[in-house]
Design brief:
Three copies of one chain form a homotrimer. With about 250 residues, chain A is of the alpha+beta class. Chain A has five helices and 14 strands. In chain A, α1 packs parallel to α4 and α2 packs across α3. The interface between A and B is medium-sized, with 29 and 30 residues.
Chain lengths: ~250, ~250, ~250
Amino acid sequence: MIVLFTDFGLAGPYTGQVTAVLQREAPSVPVVSLFADAPSGMPKPSSYLLAAYAAWFPAGTVLLCVVDPGVGGDRRALIAEAAGRLYVGPDNGLFEIVLRRADSAQVGGQCREITWLPEKLSASFHGRDLFAPVAARLARGEKPETMARSTAPMRFADWPDDLAEIVYIDHYGNAMTGMRGETVAATATVVCGGRTIAPARTFSSVPPGTALWYVNSNGLVEIAINGGRADRLIGLAIGSKVELATP
Amino acid sequence: MIVLFTDFGLAGPYTGQVTAVLQREAPSVPVVSLFADAPSGMPKPSSYLLAAYAAWFPAGTVLLCVVDPGVGGDRRALIAEAAGRLYVGPDNGLFEIVLRRADSAQVGGQCREITWLPEKLSASFHGRDLFAPVAARLARGEKPETMARSTAPMRFADWPDDLAEIVYIDHYGNAMTGMRGETVAATATVVCGGRTIAPARTFSSVPPGTALWYVNSNGLVEIAINGGRADRLIGLAIGSKVELATP
Amino acid sequence: MIVLFTDFGLAGPYTGQVTAVLQREAPSVPVVSLFADAPSGMPKPSSYLLAAYAAWFPAGTVLLCVVDPGVGGDRRALIAEAAGRLYVGPDNGLFEIVLRRADSAQVGGQCREITWLPEKLSASFHGRDLFAPVAARLARGEKPETMARSTAPMRFADWPDDLAEIVYIDHYGNAMTGMRGETVAATATVVCGGRTIAPARTFSSVPPGTALWYVNSNGLVEIAINGGRADRLIGLAIGSKVELATP
């Protein structure tokens, strides 16, 4: 399976063109769009989001990842292997957290710079012209080493292991942080947007209109309001800081 | 075919993860997203919308339906059979209108409570963890009784047979009501947002900027403005009341 | 492959129902949504957008194109052949630029009026009821002449070959014009929204916050701001005029 993690949007031409390339180059491989609205042009929050959601897919999955504000410049193109999954995308920190967690779990973390080049490479759409054909080849079973050479990727040692910021606002207005629930005390309160928010297991366990935090279905600390949009009512956006207060 | 009727949105992670589960569990069954923007967290308007749109699909279709504000609480999970179609989703009224119409047409209306449990069940994403695997099994031909036991679903006898409210705003700003066109006189006028709106067969049969109502392609009374967005220009949202005036 | 070019939106019921028809009528043919947010109800800008993006697909592709404000009125339904691709949609100018470019390149430009009629034809959703079944039949290999008779389509001789207006705003807020890059001097400046904008090859070659224009990956002149949304910051929308100033 090829999984798309991008900031392309679905309605416009980008996801469609990438899907057309994958369909042509690897017709029997199913393609699933996981995120088409990853934090636009922001590799740092995207890196925490990707690490949390990629872990849900089985080993062997190929993830085509494009949050790429430096496209057309001199940033390199990577194939990263981590915990049995293959990631294709730009060398801009997008794979920092995936690689770091693979390192600490000693389950791979191999990086290669893509050396394969398509016949035509546009300056602004490497997702279609470079990353998609490479992802299709990997999904068909071609080896990374036939398209790429070993390299050390850019590393971002100053990024924390868990990011105490909002990294994604979902369709309901719920706000995901870059913190794994397993690193936070179950009784901690979360402080953000001037509010102190207590934990709850489900929406329906607090009164309507009440804010709550919980560990979401992919393991991230998430802030919501029962029956309302947390983003608007609390004033949260990607990058909003979050603090923990352990009682 | 598996048809998705949800309030998940398409761009974020929810539809993608559900699609990945269906792909894994029933790889040869096509998946179509019918609505990913059903009225968010509102089973009542969603129930009228679902009944109108499900009827367009042939018998044998499996509909995976998730508008589920009570997820993780004590609401039950259902498989409903009605008019030869199978519905999987929460017991919160979402299937009320489908079941009621199947009852009155004497074409089934059998309900079962899902007793099958996945290995891992998150508190907030039963669409992925419970409903999708059950829908995949049904689409593969497994019988409902192997996963569920007969039950009486929650019923909402005070809901009308046709809902004189806006239940959906589409991409063009057209506003669908929960009223079937066949229950409304063809010459009736619709009163909403302080306006009295006359019927017309097509957009192009009224001058630009004029409001009209018509029976849409799935049988619902719908309000629009030729060349404009009815939601903004008339001030309509999900839940806005509509009145009929028969001349 | 069947490619969708519509103003339907993806989340609501229209793309899903069209996809269900294609799946049923041509189950082995992949369907890709290229645009679901073409300029809503505006065949003129859509025509330039379609011509630029259709050219990327190989000969033999069937394009199902629905930007159709006159649906249900007396506008005709067409199958157009141009440069080896087949287009299905309304006779309202949507194919004007595709046909004109095929004429000038002497690579076809044959038009037929669809005479085939489905059993049921709604007044408001010919995309589902008429165009999708015809597209599916073409994708299965049926000949246009079995469903349609030769005709001269409506022509719009007063439309320019390249449109100096914004024809699309993408997910990032970048604004595409209807001008092919090959018709514009590489050193020209673009004037719009009261600003004079210089060319650049990539986003990262100008400082953050700076506006630039470039030839996008499908050959159109596009206006953007490095790290920002050009639509909001410059005040651009579909239909905004653009002027060229050649130094």
